[in-house]
Amino acid sequence: MKIPSFYFGIGKKPVEKGTIHKEKEEFKDAHWVLKHAHSGKFYEFTLEMVDFPNINIKNIGNLEETGLTFENNRISGIPTAHNMYHLDIEFFHTEDKENTDVKRVQLLVNIDPKDLWKNIPSDKDADFYKEDEVSFQGEFSDKKMVVASKRGRSHAHEGKFREDDFAINKLPLDWNIISISDGAGSAVMAREGSRLATVSVNHFFSSAEVVSEIENNVNIIYTSEDVKKEQEAKENVIRLLYEGVLYVHHTLEKSASENKFSTNDLHATLVFSLVKKFNFGYVILSFGVGDCPINLINTDFSEVKLLNIMDVGEFSGGTRFITMKEIFNDHIVSRFGITCVKDFSYLVLMTDGIYDPKFLTENKLEDTGSWKTFFKDLNGDNDDLAKVDFINDTEIAQQLLHWTDFWSRGNHDDRTLAIIY
């Protein structure tokens, strides 16, 4: 006679049908609330089965319409649309694999706040038409550069134009220039004001004569041992930068007159940096009017410098614009910067559409912790999992443009960000 294996304790005693039914019913009756999802944002939720060791989930019905997938008791993915979805959890008992049962649960996918905003194209037939978004990637001195400029949701919702702008040029003698401008929301032709501001300042410094004079004086500043000559050279560089800024102002005044605008209709901020690598280091000449920062981050991320004054704090009366005559007073000298460093990891320029939601206050612009958080965000540590890859950077311009579409409640202004790396 063959002795059953369970007699020796090495077999498993069959589970009674009543027990199987009871455990399946307990699983069906358990109250499960799935974490709410948001359309367009990554979602994951693990179905904990600790209390139901003999229940296996085979599949989840109706899940495909959500855009999510199921694997290893984990629901994940990016929901495609907001809705209340009724999901059928198909399961079986480990001792009764042939008989599948269903447990119904609900998954609420909330609407993405972005979906509440319209994206109406701007009028291509309007005067001074400007693209709603643009990006650039290329060389800048012996480093690389990426720039993205995107129309804000407030403008897109009403079919208005992007009022930010930027311009990049290679200059004589291996100098480079990047300029960024933010047109004032109250100015009816702000889009043209910002374009003219960036284009005209870059044009001024495209002169071989101007750049040669800047270069000669920069060499004196950093190689001369004569303190008086060094001071004179600094004054000469600032004078040339001043002439460039004045040229922009006159260009805007002229355009306003020719088009029968008020100069105020072209109100725009302006920041720019001229950069060249010398044998003694990188020289960065800078200027700023308005609330757009220029930041220099050193090689080991231990120090961040703000290279321009921001029109906040002592300038609490409101943002200044390159169109305003009052900026050309005795204090304008403080708006210019001459910086020399052996090397740097990033040189960053941005408009307030980036600065306001990501840094909040001016004092965080020189806080290394805030900048580390900012670059973690750029590296994909954000709700959209949008990553800007500075290493494998073949598609970095499109990545940065996608990143600038981040959601920040109450911050829907145009966004422009330039990074030299």
From TrEMBL:
Domain PPM-type phosphatase, first and last residues per copy: 151-377
InterPro entries with a match to the protein in the record: PPM-type-like_dom_sf, PPM-type_phosphatase-like_dom
A Pfam family per the record: PP2C_2
- What name is this protein filed under? Protein phosphatase 2C
| Classification lineage | Bacteria, Pseudomonadati, Bacteroidota, Flavobacteriia, Flavobacteriales
